[in-house]
Design brief:
This protein has 112 residues and is mainly β. 9% of the residues lie in helices and 46% in strands. Strands 1-2-3-8-6-5-4-9 form an 8-stranded mixed β-barrel. The radius of gyration is 12 Å and the shape is globular.
Length: 112
């Protein structure tokens, strides 16, 4: 059985999906801007919702830190930039793919 976890590298603006210690996929992301930085630390995915509406794109995966999550975007040009209110934004097709792979309680490490 796979042992998935996610590492978000803020300096690289990349999200990595790992199975054990092996990187399975890497995805470009947008991160929090200067005044609303993405929090660093250890979190878990606590909820998942397809088509949440608004600016959250095709999928929302909420983190154990309230009000923060990994989600799609209605502004694909923002990916790769520091523009969000602290959430991790992905291309819609990427977040749908990731959400289909990782179960609830998946560990998410966000590093500077």
């Amino acid at each position: 059985m796979p042992n998935y976890r996610i590492i978000v590298d803020l300096s690289e603006r990349q999200l990595y999906l790992l199975d054990g210690n092996t990187v399975v996929r890497g995805f470009p992301v947008a991160i929090g801007k200067m005044l609303t930085k993405t929090p660093t630390g250890e979190f878990k995915i606590v909820n998942k919702q397809p088509d949440p509406g608004g600016p959250f794109g095709a999928y929302w995966m909420g983190l154990s830190k309230p009000h923060y999550g990994i989600h799609g975007t209605n502004d694909p040009a923002s990916i790769g930039r520091a523009v969000s209110h602290g959430c991790i934004r992905m291309y819609n097709e990427d977040v749908v793919e990731l959400a289909a792979i990782v179960p609830l309680e998946t560990r998410v490490t966000i590093r500077p």
